[in-house]
Amino acid sequence: MKKILICTLSSDEYSKSRYELINMFIQEKFDICLVSPDTFSPRDYFNYKFIKHIRIKIDRNSINPIYDIITYLKIKKLIKKYFPDLVYSFSGAKAVIYTSLAAWNVCKDKTKIFSMINGLGSLYYNNDIKYIVIRKVMNFMYKNSLKYCKMIFFQNIDDLNRFVKYNIVKRGKSTVINGAGVNLELFPFTPIENNKNCLFVGRLLRDKGIYEFVEAARIIKKEILDAKFIIVGEFDSNPMSIKKSDIKMWEKEGIIEYLGKRNDIYNLYASCRVFILPSYHEGTPRTILEALSVGRPIITTNASGCKNTVIHNENGYIVPIGSYKSIAEHIYSLINNFELCKNMGKKSRKIAEQIYDVNIINNKLKDQMLKNK
To answer: How far, in Å, CA of 14 to CA of 20, rounded?
Structure first.
């Protein structure tokens, strides 16, 4: 039986963004080993006996080399014991770097190694001296691990071009895949209700555009008192995470409603009028793809990954990064024009069907990963 080892930094990815991909490997009758730092019970999600989960602690924010060496050695030990035919790592620099490097050192060319760069994160967009130094180290580590990959997948062309420019990867061994895709059946098109609900879904990080969302809400609520601005997501250990005191202050002011982490995310998309993600950078944001599928107008930024999901003035609006006034202007237009919302929502669904259907995405991955197998 063929074997595949898949590594990521969050087990949520297995059930949310890679569920269909894992099922694809089940259909191909692979023995499957899932690796992540947190607990996960694959049998709760996948009806398949040849699937298991191994927990290995990978601290994405640690800069302690001793800790990271220990992590690498644990991954290497696992790969030596499991000896997979395919290795796929994604969603986190350390998952990608250590898994790719360990797989090559153990298996050499007996194993095909694939990695996906989900997004480059604040490390590549912050020019403080600390980030510049860490970025140089990460570039070196990326280059010396990704060179062993059969193919490197990027979620947008900007990230691919950046890695080519830095001489981290070669263009011939890299390709763009439009994110993880979206399951059109789990997020069916739903007619927009004539309400004034504006929704943000994402980790509560400064560079997700939380502050811009709140400032835009502050402007709108001065004129439209019954407009609702809903934030869904959890706090993060990332240094860019916002404070709980900020959320409490905004709630007390009556600017936002905070719902925390939710599992009924489809219902939240269905009950909103417009979806807003003012992020500074992304790979391809899953939340926007889900909102597209449900049929919602999108307001997002001209950041890498975000701008690819919107055709300006057709299924939503692209605004400059950091421009809460521009966000407010477009929210105002959508709240005051229900027909415009409906037309944009229909266009969003078409984009989801034509470009971001998870089956389209997975077939592209399958063509690459199972080629010549």
So the answer is: 9
Answering whether pTM is above 0.90, one says: yes
Q: 46: number of CA atoms within 13 Å, CB side?
A: 26
Distance, CA of 285 to chain centre: 5
Q: Give the distance, in angstroms, between the CA of residue 232 and the centroid of all CA atoms in the same chain.
A: 15
CA 151 → CA 113, 137, 163, 185, 369, distances in Å?
A: 7, 22, 14, 30, 8
Rounded CA-CA distance 286/170 in Å is 27
Residues 197-356, CATH architecture? 3-Layer(aba) Sandwich (3.40)
Domain residue spans of the chain: 3-181+357-369, 197-356
pLDDT (tens digit, 9 = 90+) per residue, 42-55?
999 999 999 999 99
Tokens of 201: 């879904």
Within 10 Å of residue 34's Cβ, how many Cβ atoms? 22
User: Whose structure tokens read 């620099």?
Assistant: 93
Name residues whose C-beta falls within 8 Å of residue 98's C-beta, 6 or more positions apart in sequence.
Answer: 58, 68, 71, 72, 75, 145
Confidence label for 183 from pLDDT (cuts 50, 70 and 90): very high
Contacts of 362 (CB under 8 A, 6+ apart): 20, 21, 24, 181
The CATH number that domain 3-181+357-369 falls under is 3.40.50.2000
Q: Which of 227, 274, 231 is nearest to 249 (CA)?
A: 231
CA distances from residue 304 to 128, 154, 198, 290 in whole angstroms, order as listed: 20, 11, 23, 18
